[in-house]
Write a structure and sequence with these properties.
about 170 residues, transport, mitochondrion inner membrane
């Protein structure tokens, strides 16, 4: 529903498939009416790996980066600056690992579907990756990485900072 609404624009400037929902409740109703509950889960095959890979990268790089900064004595052990530095490194790792999955998820969510709910452009997760890679090159999987970092970087830094502080308690 989110992707359908975010991709929607005026016909004069529209790029890609347009779903033409009037509002959020209309989008839910339209998707449900056309494709049932399964339609509301379209694209999940791209979203689940995205979250798994992003979370793994976030936690692994945070601990390693924080330890590395402390070992170099750039910041003291337990310093909030070490936590922020670890969070910044982790934010970069999250953006690099999650962006291909974001691109795939967005394409799967936003593609037009037939009456049975099958995608008209991609047959699934792997087909989407292969098509993007072959038509746009590997960098096609990194479209929007700057915007991804601007969204995930601060979120990662703050989440890990608060997590680290709560863990100390």
């Amino acid at each position: 529903v989110k992707t359908h609404l975010q991709a929607q624009t005026l016909a004069a400037v529209a790029v890609g498939h347009q779903h033409n929902h009037e509002n959020i409740s209309g989008a839910f109703a339209s998707i449900y009416k056309q494709h049932g509950v399964a339609g509301l889960w379209g694209g999940v095959t791209g979203a689940v790996p995205r979250v798994a890979v992003g979370s793994a990268a976030q936690l692994a790089t945070f601990a390693s980066a924080k330890d590395w900064v402390c070992e170099r004595q750039w910041f003291g052990e337990g310093s909030w600056a070490a936590v922020l530095a670890g969070g910044m490194v982790s934010g970069v790792a999250v953006a690099v690992t999650m962006t291909p999955f974001d691109v795939v998820s967005t394409r799967l969510y936003n593609q037009p579907v037939d009456a049975d709910g099958a995608g008209k452009l991609y047959r699934g997760f792997w087909d989407c990756i292969l098509q993007i890679s072959s038509k746009e090159g590997l960098l096609g999987l990194y479209k929007g990485i700057g915007a991804v970092y601007l969204r995930l970087g601060p979120h990662t830094v703050l989440s890990l900072f608060f997590w680290d502080e709560l863990r100390k308690m």
